[in-house]
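Support reply, case 0932

Customer input (verbatim):
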Amino acid sequence: MRRNRNEFLFFFLSVLFLGLIIGNGLSGYVAAQTGSPYKDLEVFSDALSIVQSEYVQEVPTQTLIYGALKGMLDKLDPHSQFMQPETYKELKVETEGHFGGLGIVISLDENKVLTVVSPIEDTPAFKAGVQAGDKIMKIDGASTEGLVLEEAVKKLRGPKGSQVKVSVIRLHETDGKVPEELEFTLTRDDIKIPSVKSRMLESNIGYIRLVEFSERTASELHKAIIDLKSQGMRSLVLDMRNNPGGLLNVSADVSEEFLDKGKLIVYTESRNTEQNLRFKSKKNPSVDPSTPMVVLVNQGSASASEIVAGALKDWHRAVVLGEKTFGKGSVQSIIPLSDGSALRLTTAKYLTPGGHSIDGVGIIPDIEVKISKEQFVHLLGGLDMTAPLVIKGQTKTDGETESKPDQESKEKPVMTDVQLQRAVELLQGYDIFKTLEQNVKMAKGQEEPPSEEGPDEKSQKPAAGEESEKALPEEAAPSGK
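Our regenerated output:
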């Protein structure tokens, strides 16, 4: 009996002690949960209740909640946004390589103003004269203030052959002109984007223009490189001006056509280190490391274009020439919600191999050569990839030089692409100095004459930063994305 009594007393005291522990733990948990976010949610709940009961007219609860979510995401950055179910469905529609639209890539600037990143070549917007940096203020007379990107895209797209009026403000920041208001009446069309264009310039300089980064870009680029090499390419100009970007994995595939196997191309940084990604070249380059390269960029070069330019610049694989790029270097993840809506949330930022952030900064060229947007649009508008390059009043194609008649020049003035011209002159100068260096070594008996097949096949000197790989973030395995 006494033993049973003692056992009961022990059990009671144990339960009491456990209850005290759990009670203290729960009170601490409740205190913690009634901290900042939960206390603020109570304020939100009170405001929602007041609006529902006191507002002058009844408003559906979902409308209020969606409005609050939109405001919350809009406060984060220009690229994060809340998407209602119908907007999310629109985003998921497969375009299968073409769509009825205008041919412009748009984004929101730091002030949430709808901005043209780049018009795509040979599209309605491009042909009408829309330029990178134009601020879209109205679509069919309706203000774009407060529009999220998907809503703007939906307004700009439509049946092929239909028209839309787009009002823009052009700032003229580089040439000092007064900002002007322009209105374009654009006819929608199927947008079929040629990914890669190429040709051979004078002095066996290969020229490749990347228009965008689509699923076909890497394979088309590889074919273009093989074709130019078969024609005796000695150096290369990679033109990514007005290239708005595209798929991240394609930017890595493009970069590894020029970088040695194992070289870091780009990596991401986020709050969740397990989700950080690192992209390295997985194969040997198609273009020999000793082949001189110049990369052309401008304000319309964004996203994937900046990744490629940044990688080639940091590894000293190419000279970047032109103007500062757009500065779109963040990763947006689409996170579906239970009711069919979704969050488009910035979850990481891109960094170049040297650790330079692209977002809001862009890629600064090694050599700055400015050209007005109007000049560039006119140049591309009349660009025939089969036509010879115009430099200093002469044309040259397939190694032949021909003077242009004076009468024809007067009747049809030629506008020279000064950025491409500078790139060609830079590569020609490099070739001359390389030949001089070989001649000096030959004179000193240090080197055999070069073969007739072209430049030697020496490996590229490691770029600054290759030996300092330890300074880069440690390897982080992809999280299955």
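We compared this against your earlier run and they match. Two observations from our side: The longest helix spans residues 2-33. Confidence is low (pLDDT under 50) at residues 8-34, 94-98, 382-414, 449-481. Please reopen the case if you see a mismatch on your end.
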